[in-house]
Amino acid sequence: MTTARCNPLWQPIPCPLSDIEGLESWLGDMAAQGLVPVTIGQNFARFRCSQPKAVRYRLNAKPAPETFLESAPGTPDGEERALAQECGWYYVTAVGDFFLYACEDSDAPELNTDPQVQALSLRYAKRQVFAPAGLLAYWLVTFWVRYAMGVWHTPVIDFVELGWLSFCYLGLLAAALVSVVHNTVLLYRFSARLTRGAEPERHKNWRKGAGRYLVGRMLAALLFVLTVVFLYPLWYVLVGSISDPVRLFMHNGLLWRPLGFSLQGYRTMLQNPNVGIGYANTIFYVVVGTVLSIFFSCLGAYTLSRPKLMFKKLFTLLVVFTMYFSGGMIPKFLVVKGVGLYNTRMAVILPGVISTWNMIVMRTSFRAIPQSLEESARLDGAGDFTILFRIIVPCAKATIAVMVLYYAVAQWNGWFDAMIYLQDRSKFPLQLFLREILLININNANNAAGNDAADVLYLDTLVKYAMIIISTVPILCIYPFVQKYFMKGVMMGSIKE
Question: Are 187 and 277 members of one domain?
């Protein structure tokens, strides 16, 4: 055996991690070739060279966390390792939501002798595999609805032209969804066989699905490339906003780094006193609107999630009805004016204080909380408000964090209601002032002549980019604080066990 051969080797995994039987069979074949696994990732496995030997590998599902906010352990505890060693099995590494064990003794008993017990241990793994399918489906629906409604633009500037590239991205998302659903089906079929008491296929031909899995990896790589393509316009705008306006205007092609350095666009924006007024108003609308939206959404979701609510189906139908039908802009305007909200700050907040979709997601999350907690609280004399704010809300804080993000983004980007219901400029949000500045710069560029026209044109481009950064970056700063709750919050309550 050569020295190069003895160096650590990286091998692509020919089957999804949810194909437990195929992965175990493949690792056994690798051991027969003298390759022992060291670490196993999502796409590649790292091996070390050894003598060819017959080794059995088994994937044991990680134990499910006790609460929604905890994660599964990274390594098995001492008791689990001791029990495995008594049967002749030793721990190798963690593989996704599983622990990998190996055994070189052909006479040693199986790690899991009861298939039905093993099936019960797969619940957490099934939930983790199913979660990406739900998230991808959500993005598919969101993409299609927003594209069909034509809401991909902002009142400031359309800096991303979608066109045919959008449908390519949509197609790849659909392909990724099919791949995730396929992996989910594999895991559920394996669990179903174990539940029936059937023995796993210990010598499964993993080569049969290797080609299909490779195509799925290629689609994932292409999806990553398209994601970079979609993120590039934002990077272009960020770099362009701090570039020299003349060099930027004369530049053609891709832009990866600033062309010179200039903050003239930001100075022009910040010299306008309306920008500070708009920021203060927008922050007020975001904070107050988000607090009121979360409060009323929690009340509505808690009410609809109660199993003993009278006429629950009727109330749910009436709530869902508002997602598809509305009175229109003119009746809404007349209602706002009739109740005395016209030209007030509440006119921007109250008409859209509750999102039906967000409330339904919260209701689903509240229903997933065990009823025993509520029953115990009622035995101690707790009322509905106590149960809601001291039991339900803390248990569902992941979902609520995601709803905070949804409502805050909607309030930050809101401009249409303010344009209709507000006349007092001191109450305008930031978006309306940015739109006004953009229109003024365009008019100045059209009315200027000679060298002044060129200078105004150069500055206009820089101001556009500065507008986008000023109106986008603050709300993006919220994402890092709620990112860890996003997947958990949206998918909570979607898995039935």
Answer: no
Span 344-364, mean pLDDT? 88
Q: What is the mean pLDDT of residues 425-430?
A: 88
Whether residue 455 lies inside any domain: the answer is yes
**In a shared domain, residues 292 and 406:** yes
CA quadruple 474, 476, 479, 481: dihedral positive or negative? negative
Its domain, for residue 63, covers 3-109
Return d(Cα 73, Cα 262) in angstroms, integer.
50
The domain boundary, picked from 226, 250, 274, lies at 250
The pTM (predicted TM-score) of the whole model is: 0.57
Confidence tier at 294 by pLDDT (50, 70, 90): very high
**Do 80 and 124 contact (CB within 8 A), yes or no?**
no
Same-domain status, 435 and 310: yes
Span 331-351, average pLDDT: 89
Looking at the fold, whether 148 and 91 belong to one and the same domain comes out as: no
Report if residue 256 sits inside a domain.
no
